[in-house]
Amino acid sequence: MFSLASLPAFFTAWASGTATGLGLFAVVGAQSAFILRQGLMRAHLLSILAVCAAIDAVFIFASVWGLQAVAAWFPWLTEAVLWFGVAFLAWYALQSARRALRAQGGLVAARQAVPSRRAALLGAAGFTLLNPHFWLDIMVVGSLAHSFEDARLAFAAGALTASLLWLAVLGIGSRLFAPWFANPRAWRVLDGGIAMVLIVLVGRLAYKGLAG
User: Which cellular component terms (GO) are annotated to the entry (predicted)?
Assistant: First the structure.
């Protein structure tokens, strides 16, 4: 039961969750690259951020409430998510690489091929839920939260705070850098960087899947 005496423990758990979450989430991975590109395209950014935040909130607290037990009951789910994620990220890496190799590829895509809101939201969900690193991070949060016993939900709240902070940084950053991307060369650099990040990620995931 909550009491004033428990406030220091809850604050400590929240602060630890925030620090852990920043360490786990504040990286330029598949989801971050997708959000940055959509923000630069000015394509449904707020809706995408809302979907990502909602998914993070649901699964962070679900992990604390027993998602790990589900994974233990159905161990094949972990491998299935891994290989779906490898295929999905490899496809997007290929698309990014193709745009980077074309002189006007990224700029034309930004000006003419802005996806519908539905497509953008499905993309946000895909880059989150089909990314095996997302599931690994969620499991880490759930494991660490239980070490705080009665304050474990405060730890989860801290991890969610970190997620929201990182999403805000991505959203604001993409808007601040948008003027630079009137130049097609900037789009080629961005798409080339996204392709390299995803290729490295795909390689690491595939190696992990084959070695495991």
Answer: plasma membrane
What's the token pair of residue 41?
Answer: 């395209």
How many domains would you assign to the chain?
1
Q: What are phi and psi of 118, to 5 degrees?
A: -60, -45
Average pLDDT per 10 consecutive residues for the chain, totaling 212 residues: 59 86 75 82 87 94 74 67 73 78 55 67 87 80 76 89 92 79 70 77 77 70
- d(Cα 165, Cα 94) in Å, to the nearest integer? 30
d(CA 125, CA 119): 10
Separation CA 171–CA 39 (nearest Å): 6
Residue 121 placed within a domain: yes
Tally the C-alpha atoms within 13 A of residue 11's C-alpha that lie toward its C-beta. Answer: 6
Match 């494991």 to its residue by tokens: 143
Distance between CA atoms of 202 and 85, rounded to whole angstroms? 8
